[in-house]
Amino acid sequence: MRFNILFGGKAGQGISALAYVLARALVRKGYYAFYSRDYQSLIRGGHNFDVLTFSNEPVYSNDSKLDVIVALDDMTELIHKSQLKKHGLIVKGHSELGNMFFAGRIFKILGIEFEFLKEELKNLEKYEENIKAAEKGYNSEKEVFELENVINKENKVFRNGSMGIAEGAIHSGLDIYYAYPMTPATPILKELAEKQIKGFFLVLELENEIAVANAGIGSAITGAKVMVGTSGGGFDLMSEALSLCGIAGVPLVFYLAQRQGPGTGVATYQSQADLNIARFSGHGEFPRVVLAPGDPVEAEELTSQGFYLSQKFKIPCIIISDKHLAESFYTIKEIPEVIKSKKQTNFSRYNSYEKDKYGSATDNPQIIVSNVNKRKEIKKSLIEESENFDQYKVFGNPSSDNVVVAWGSTKGAILDCIRQGLDVKFVQILYIEPFPKKDLWKEFIGKNLILVENNSTGQLGELIKEKLGFNIPEKNKILKYNARPFLHDELKKEIEKRLR
């Protein structure tokens, strides 16, 4: 069973709250749920929609065809009715009772007991008002769909990638988080701000990204564990500070949440086009870590690894996420494996210039060579230490001649393709820098390589060619760059066209 519901309406009508309430209830009933958000850069009006996919088996992406459309305005039906399945249902109508009236209706249509909705409403404001609206909606409908029962009701949590990043930072002993709001990095501000008192750390929103990065450096050199967050345009402004971390030996974690660019681009939509700026931003040569989680569990795990490696080697670390991962909700049953990193406090004189053993600026050529060589040795040690972690993962049929390779949030749609019968091996790259050269080539040799990325140039494919020498043919590159994430059924068809 795989069921898809689209909730659509204007910004301000509570579309996401409606989807979240239903998804949470489904998870509590034992189902697996996944939902993503599609919204314009507007506070009111326009057209927003969330798509909720749920199943009695793990699910990590949405489908192109819908079982139900919940239309809070006329535009939703007009835009999306072509996606409705033959026997699908449109739940529409105008009501002054608001979004929870529609929640009651959809709960009844799906045959979900009202108590599950009532329990979810306790987590929202205006409980009495919402419960009355929900009851009216529930009593106005009849059960239409008979959902398959859940046999194995495992303990699960419902979490998005932003929550995973935040938890990883907290469990790593975060002291300070600096940020300036920029979609889709902004949810981290909310997650951490709500927990700062209980967690004994500080969250500060500063006036711009330059201030954020430099404040992060200032705090880090005093011994604090610090993370700074932004999206692509803000990360551009942080590049000078990134270079300063590189020469001064400052352990600072950067959170880079990708969105469609360049410039303002399409500010609230999806992209994976910032891999190269994560690898190359900053001038000169210095070691760095670049980690790319593909789900909330990996977001937590890789953030903790990022803090560990940053502290151990006194280098910058970049956690690279994207809009789809940051804001989509996944059903999680795994317990993340996080590590506690020790603070590598060493009070000394910090300098943006090459420095001598006293921390004083110098242009002595022998000292310059010595310092550069020390940074090169750090990179060698970093490579060795990184091999203690999973730098890539393999899913599907390990002996298949067809290998799909990808990174970040594309993982979800690929896993769903495999679950729906696609016979391939899927190699997910987690460590962008240092790149896992030691064993990865064995997964690719003699195979039909198929690349899946949310960008127009295949940046991971170019990285693989650079590091391992494998050239993925243009015809085998599935590149989606319309600022939307992959849908599993459409992706499955594209991969099948390229199978050997």
Ordered list of secondary-structure elements with their pairings:
Blueprint: E1 2-11, H1 15-28, E2 32-38, E3 45-55, E4 66-71, H2 74-80, E5 84-91, H3 99-109, H4 114-121, H5 127-139, E6 157-160, H6 161-171, E7 176-179, H7 186-199, E8 202-205, H8 209-220, E9 226-230, H9 232-248, E10 253-258, H10 275-280, E11 289-291, H11 296-313, E12 317-322, H12 323-327, E13 329-332, H13 365-386, E14 392-396, E15 402-407, H14 410-419, E16 425-429, E17 431-433, H15 437-444, E18 448-453, H16 459-468, E19 477-479, H17 488-496
Question: CATH H-level name of the largest domain... which superfamily?
Answer: Thiamin diphosphate (ThDP)-binding fold, Pyr/PP domains
Count of domain modules: 3
Strand content: 15-25%
Total beta strand runs: 19
State the CATH topology of the largest domain.
Answer: Rossmann fold
What portion of residues is helical?
Answer: 25-40%
Q: What are the low-pLDDT stretches, counting only 5+ consecutive residues below 50?
A: none
Q: Which shape, going by the Cα principal axes?
A: globular
Order of strands, main sheet, comes to: 5-4-1-3-2-13-6
CATH architecture of the largest domain: 3-Layer(aba) Sandwich
Structure description:
The chain is of the alpha/beta class and 500 residues long. The protein has 3 domains: 2-139, Pyruvate-ferredoxin oxidoreductase, PFOR, domain III (Pyruvate-ferredoxin Oxidoreductase, domain 3); 159-386, 3-Layer(aba) Sandwich (Rossmann fold), CATH 3.40.50; 392-496, 3-Layer(aba) Sandwich (Rossmann fold). 39% of the residues lie in helices and 21% in strands. The chain has a 7-stranded mixed sheet, with helices on both faces. A 7-stranded mixed sheet has the order 8-7-9-10-12-11-17, with helices on both faces. Helix 6 (161-171) runs parallel beside helix 7. The radius of gyration is 24 Å and the shape is globular.
